[in-house]
């Protein structure tokens, strides 16, 4: 990974987007096993229907993990200073998550050159599922 240079990143710069495969039952089962989050609304159709959902749906933290992948494809994990998100929608089976980020601020803090990013994870229909911000240090 070539280090991203502070001088090359301006406000408005967009990271290459990350599009994942459509969410399916296998995705949810694998995430439940890896994360330890076995909430039935994500893996049990009958339970989801009792909760007035048409079917099981993705864990919100799965989309956060996808945003983490977007960031670590751009900078090393050690350069991430903060990540905050707000859940804005449910990722249903069949949704194709796409993560994106755009530089909204350049600043210096603690002797580092940093950028603040507006981040989002949306479905193939353009509906936001997560929105938030991340701060990363650059060289």
From TrEMBL:
<dbReference type="InterPro" id="IPR002539">
    <property type="entry name" value="MaoC-like_dom"/>
</dbReference>
<feature type="domain" description="MaoC-like">
    <location>
        <begin position="23"/>
        <end position="94"/>
    </location>
</feature>
<protein>
    <submittedName>
        <fullName>Dehydratase</fullName>
    </submittedName>
</protein>
<dbReference type="Pfam" id="PF01575">
    <property type="entry name" value="MaoC_dehydratas"/>
</dbReference>
<dbReference type="InterPro" id="IPR029069">
    <property type="entry name" value="HotDog_dom_sf"/>
</dbReference>
